[in-house]
Protein: 2-hydroxychromene-2-carboxylate isomerase
Organism: Leptospira hartskeerlii
Amino acid sequence: MSKPTLSFWFEFASTYSYLTAGRIKSLAEKEGILIEWKPFLLGPIFKDQGMSDSPFNLFPTKGKYMWKDLERRTEKYGLPFSKPDTFPQNGLKAARITIANLDKPWVHHFILETYKVEFSQKQDISNVSVLSQILKSLGQNPENIISTSESDENKNKLRENTEQARKLGIFGAPSFIVNGELFWGDDRLEDAIEFLKSRS
Amino acid sequence: MSKPTLSFWFEFASTYSYLTAGRIKSLAEKEGILIEWKPFLLGPIFKDQGMSDSPFNLFPTKGKYMWKDLERRTEKYGLPFSKPDTFPQNGLKAARITIANLDKPWVHHFILETYKVEFSQKQDISNVSVLSQILKSLGQNPENIISTSESDENKNKLRENTEQARKLGIFGAPSFIVNGELFWGDDRLEDAIEFLKSRS
C-alpha cells in the first residue's frame, strides 16, 4: 500500500509558501507521509477576488506586519531571511521549471533554493539568469531545462494546476489538500498532516 | 514584582477572537503571565483599509474556508460552535459593557459567554435582551450595568482603545502586544507568550 499523501499547493511569489517549502520535506519524512508538490499561480486567483496586487501591498498595515512576522518565523525555523527589494516577484518561470521536472530528485532543492534566493539574497527570480545560476549550482543544464519548460505542453500543465486550485476553493498559498479538504497557511500544516493520518 | 503582561486585543464580531477568548485564561494561568484585556472595534480600522464589511464577506471563497476552519478549530479547542445567521454582528454594546467592568471578576465569563451565544447559539449580540440574559445568568443587574456602559465617559474609553489599536498598527483581531511588538491571530498566541517570557 502506498503512503498517505498530502498535496502542497505553493506559489513562488508567496512569503508563507517559503516557510512551508523550508520544512515540509523533513516533516513528511518524520511523519511517514508523501507530499504531492503542486506549483500554481496566485495572480489569476487574486484577480477573481478583485485584487490586482498582493493583499500585503493593497493593505500596507497588514503588509508591514507580515514582513515582521516572516522575520520572526524564518528565525524560528532556521531559514535565512532578508526582505526583498521587489515584492511580489513573478514566479511564472520558476513554476514552469518546477512542473516540468517534478519527477527529478533535484527539483526539491531547486524549489527551496529559489525561495532562498528570493527571500534572503535580494535577487529577482523572474530573471532567467538567476534561475540558470540555481540550476547550475545543482549540476543541471539550464539551457535545456529552461527551453523545455517553455513548451506549450508544459505551459498548459501550469495553467491546469491553477485551474484545479480554483476549483478546489484555494484562495491563497500555501494550501494543503487532504481527501478534498482544504487547509490554508503554513500554520495549518500540522493540522493537515494530523487530518491525513487520522484518515489513513 | 508584578507578573509579565500580555495585551489581548479582541473584537466581539471576530471569529478568531472567540478561539483565543476560549483558551487564553487557562493558558495564562499555566504560563504564569497576566492578561490585559483590550476590547476594541474593527469597523473603523477596516474602513482605514478601504473595507466596508468583514474581509470574510468581501472575499467569499476565503469566507467559506474560514467557517470550515473555525469548525475544525473550535472542535480542537473543545468550544461549542454553530455558524451564526448574521455575520459580522455589531459588538459595540458588548464591548462597552466589557470596558466598563474590566475590574470585575465576572467580566471574563461575560466575554466568553457573549462569544458562545454568538458563535454557537445563533443569537445576535447586538440585541440588548441577549446581553441582559447573559448578565442575569452571571448574577448581575443588567439595567444598571447597561445604562452605566452607555455613559459618554465609557463610550470614550472604547473610542480610545480603538484609536490606540490603530496607532499600534493593529489591523485585525485577535492581536497581542508584548513590549510594543505586535502578534496577529489566534495562531500566534503561543509565540507572543514565548516572546513575553524571553523578555521578562
Q: What stands out?
A: Chain B has one domain: 5-198. Strands of chain B lie at 5-10, 34-39, 175-178, 181-184. The first helix of chain B runs from residue 15 to 21. The radius of gyration of chain B is 16 Å.
